[in-house]
Amino acid sequence: MTTQAPERASGQGSEVDRPLPVPPPDLPREPLGITFRYWLREQRVAVAAWLLIVVLLLAGAGLYVAGALDPFKIKTADTTFGTKGANLVERGAFGSDIDVGVVGDGQDTTFIIRDKSLSGPQPAVIFLHGFGSSLVVGYEPWLEHLARQGLTVIFPSWQQPPFPIDGTQNPRVNMFRGVRLAVQAVPIQQDKVAVMGFSAGAALAFDYAALSKKLDVPKAGLVYSVYPGRAFPGEEKVMLPLPPAGDIPADTKIVTLVSRKDREAGTAWGRAQYDSLAGRGRDLRELVYVDTPGLGGHFAPAEVGRDVRTTFWQPFDRLLTAHLGVQRLPDPALKRSIRSAHKTQELLQQKRIDKKKAQRGESSVLDGGSTTTNVIGAKPDLPNG
Question: How far apart are CA 110 and CA 134, in angstroms?
Answer without folding.
Answer: 9
